[in-house]
Design a protein that fits this description.
Layout lengths: L3 E5 L2 E5 L11 H12 L2 E11 L2 E12 L2 E6 L2 E6 L2 E4 L4 E4 L11 E3 L3 E5 L2 E10 L2 E9 L5 E7 L5 E12 L14 E6 L8 E2 L2 E8 L5 E6 L4 E8 L4 H4 L3 E5 L2 E7 L4 E7 L2 E7 L3 H8 L10 H10 L1
Length: 309
């Protein structure tokens, strides 16, 4: 449901959901999302993610026009659009190709209902999964710009909330991606890779290779998405991020909860994996169960690591 540029250990990693428009399962939602991508608007958006009782939030300045978004958070900006992504201080990443994915048949989409937000007429669309609320979108009636997005966990509890607290039609002076002759890093499609065809209810949509040898698998169910980055070698995750332990089954990971996405990191089979996505917690648990399991060190390995690393 979004496009993101993230930076990890000095390497630009792009979490991309480029114009994911559900196809036949929900014509009205498809139309609203397509129009939202082409809408011209600006303002300020608050995004909140709730994880185990704690809330992470961010206030973002937004400018959006014809599929291109400029996001400014506390002076750090990102420009996203037309298959290109640029984060403040980083070079441009260009994806030469990407695939649109259809909405999973697990979801039931309700009829658009009249709504309002910030004094503007709006339309609300509810999405259910197994009869339980999974997401709710509120679109501006005139422009179809997304005003509010609510995402729920498997029990119907609010997981993420996004709202335009200031909204205006039009933009002021918005740069185009790559308009400043920024150097490009090209992410090339991969024909051969080791990514699983599916993970939980998500399917592999695209795979890419980066200039530094990192590979990226992009997974989606048409509503939520995540990227899985595979980095050669076993990295010290504690040096990469300041995260918290996450236990799923008998496996332990490191998680970073950000306002707009979740990061999950672990080592497996001589590689370091980084998952970045907007998927809700119950989906995350299903996905991790189908990905390479974290390595478990025996007591001798742990002692050696503590003494010499």
């Amino acid at each position: 449901m979004g496009r993101r540029v993230v930076t990890l250990a000095g390497a630009a990693l792009a979490w991309v959901s480029l114009a994911v428009v559900p196809a036949t399962a929900a014509t009205d939602l498809s139309d609203y999302l397509r129009d939202a991508d082409e809408a011209v608007y600006s303002g300020r958006r608050i995004v909140i993610t709730v994880w185990e009782g704690d809330a992470e939030y961010a206030l973002l300045d937004i400018e959006h026009a014809m599929g291109v978004t400029v996001v400014d958070r506390y002076g750090d900006d990102a420009v996203v659009g037309s298959g290109k992504l640029k984060a403040s201080g980083d070079g441009m990443i260009q994806f030469v190709d990407w695939t649109e994915d259809a909405l999973s048949s697990r979801y039931t989409v309700g009829e658009p209902q009249p709504a309002g937000h910030g004094g503007r007429s709006a339309v609300a669309v509810d999405v259910l999964e197994g009869g339980v609320a999974r997401a709710r979108f509120v679109f501006d009636e005139d422009t179809h710009a997304p005003l509010v997005t609510e995402v729920y966990d498997g029990g119907g509890t609010l997981f993420r909330y996004s709202s335009m607290v200031e909204f205006a039609v039009g933009v002021e002076d918005m740069p185009a991606p790559g308009g400043d002759a920024t150097p490009y890093n090209v992410a090339m499609p991969l024909e051969e890779h080791d990514f699983a065809a599916g993970a939980g209810p998500y399917r592999l949509v695209d795979a890419y290779s980066g200039s530094d040898g990192t590979t990226q698998g992009f997974y989606s169910d048409g509503l939520f998405s995540f990227s899985l980055f595979a980095i050669e070698g076993r990295a010290d995750i504690g040096d990469m991020v300041d995260g918290a332990p996450l236990e799923v089954g008998d496996s332990e990971y490191t998680i970073v909860v950000a306002p707009t996405e979740l990061w999950v990191l672990w080592n497996a089979d001589g590689e370091t994996y980084v998952l970045v996505g907007d998927l809700p917690p119950d989906h995350l648990a299903q996905v991790l169960g189908d990905l390479p399991e974290p390595n478990r060190w025996n007591w001798l390995q742990r002692m050696w690591h503590s003494l010499f690393d």
